[in-house]
Amino acid sequence: MAPARNARVLFSSIPKDYPIPGETTVYDASQTIDIENVPLNGGFLIKTLVLSVDPYMRGRMRAPEVASYSLSYQIGESLNGYGIGKIIRSEDPNFPPGKYVYGKNIPHQEYSVLSSSLDMLFVIEKDPKLPWTAYVGAAGMPGQTAWMAWKEYSNAKKGETAFVSTGAGPVGSMVIQLAKRDGLRVIACAGSDEKVQFMKEIGADVAFNYKTTDTREVLKKEGPIDIYWDNVGGEILDAALEFTAIYGRFLICGMISGYNTGLKGIKNLALAYPKSITLHGILVLRLFEKHKDEFYATVPPLLASGDIKYKEDISRGLESVGDVILAVQEGRNNGKAVVIVAEE
Amino acid sequence: MAPARNARVLFSSIPKDYPIPGETTVYDASQTIDIENVPLNGGFLIKTLVLSVDPYMRGRMRAPEVASYSLSYQIGESLNGYGIGKIIRSEDPNFPPGKYVYGKNIPHQEYSVLSSSLDMLFVIEKDPKLPWTAYVGAAGMPGQTAWMAWKEYSNAKKGETAFVSTGAGPVGSMVIQLAKRDGLRVIACAGSDEKVQFMKEIGADVAFNYKTTDTREVLKKEGPIDIYWDNVGGEILDAALEFTAIYGRFLICGMISGYNTGLKGIKNLALAYPKSITLHGILVLRLFEKHKDEFYATVPPLLASGDIKYKEDISRGLESVGDVILAVQEGRNNGKAVVIVAEE
């Protein structure tokens, strides 16, 4: 068999602010791969089916000397991230051909030779009623972030009020539904009227567009809040601090308002002590081992039955990755951003 | 018996920044009281022995329409705060003459008629080896703040590193000693070399003057820290966030850097999620009921035996209150600021 194309998405330069498709990331179709003969070195070859595009990826587009919880991307190398691949060939009995792998560092390539030493990589079974895309979204890292941290830190009590930012995204939309299942009243915000509509459909009691409505006014009227799920930081976090109830819990999951243009200083943290606030920083990787079995036993069936809803914004082909990365940073995606690289 | 003088300290105007003795607070000796005949209305008459001057009092010097956890002082009325009084006459069998009361709203007057309905007011027994002043300091609210919150939130483990701001103050110095008793390494800062010396005496492994030494440099060298006890906010809190370890615990007790001149925005809170930080806002009033019996059984004996050390900055006479309030806001006190209003 002739060598096959092995297109990839390269990290080309560190973005100044927003990542620019074709500049900071470049689609490259020049490489080929000999699928039948490429050496496996004890590992296995996958065909990439699905890649996830997530907000945290912006943090990896940095100079390698800047430390962070995630590895920086290497200039001239393929991007990588959460994804699903089908095992084509294998020299590793734990990863047999025909099975599927889920990993957090799947290269943005059509084919990759992987080793089991790669961090967080495992064989995954699919619920027949769910598409693979769900396994990088509501049944993947974003859904796990919401589910595991809500379980670990929310201390939610029936009748309380939760406020969720980026409530139409894959994390926020799961949080809204978990809060409703726990009997809470939910206030949620997002950046478009279409997203507001979706948040209402999945159960938000109060949903608003933070670009056209003043968050402080909403919280003043609808608060105080008992739990705030923060994906944005900045002024919305400050507003949440202002209108939290005593013993408010803050689950800090991300601060996308600052990923590209720098974060504003938080002014209202001095309310932490008069209000006896507790704040938890969330990194799903550190909750994963403890909660993963229960998550995979619980959440995919709830998604398959429709009891928990999710929304995907699907693009096709590796060449779309750069555009999708930018859309996610700008909040233009409508649902979990996923790229289908190939059908089986 | 002729009427006695009943001097008091009045709240006269809301400070613009720092409270000015004689302007925002005024000593007034014009009133008298008929000790033997003043009506008690079912309550009791106290002679004030000791008054506490604490940083939080600045927050009560505000316009009454501004909500907070503490009541605002009323212009033209006496200040009040933590204090000890001796009961002179009584119509309340729970507060018999000859006993002593501890309360959080003791008027800044030589004599006051009180009622048991006043918030947090109770008869207190003194360890014969301790002075009454200790009961508003290391054995009072500041000591309780440190002891109760450390017990509740620090999750301290032997061998960890703690960082304590205002480590020479009544809260910070207790935290340093609790951390050492739990087997931690302690870094502590304060604003004078004399305070640095005291912090070393009570066990701090690393003690520095934040006015002459760069906090970031110290933490870069001596950190990372596992627990940060914050009494100051601002740049020191930002430095602590930068040099905290994963799973760092932040106990936010006060932010005196902003009480008089406004608080700087916190820039590094976005490190909460990559570092899985937990932050707890502390208000001792909300921990008091749960921990008070154990506190009073444990701490006064440790103070009396010298196992836990404390330092007092004692002034005499109500006329000194205004100066002491300013000194505390400026950090010029050297030890717990206490005013002895009268000997028994």
Automatic annotation (TrEMBL), chains A, B:
Domain Enoyl reductase (ER): 44-339
InterPro entries: ADH-like_C, ADH_N_2, ER, GroES-like_sf, MDR_fam, NAD(P)-bd_dom_sf
Gene3D superfamilies: Medium-chain alcohol dehydrogenases, catalytic domain (3.90.180.10), NAD(P)-binding Rossmann-like Domain (3.40.50.720)
GO molecular function term, any single one: oxidoreductase activity, acting on the CH-CH group of donors, NAD or NADP as acceptor
Listed SUPFAM superfamilies: GroES-like, NAD(P)-binding Rossmann-fold domains
CDD domains for the chain: PGDH (cd05288)
Membrane-spanning parts: none
Record key words, sorted: Oxidoreductase
Domain of life where this protein originates: Eukaryota
Name of the protein in question: Enoyl reductase (ER) domain-containing protein
Organism this protein belongs to: Roridomyces roridus
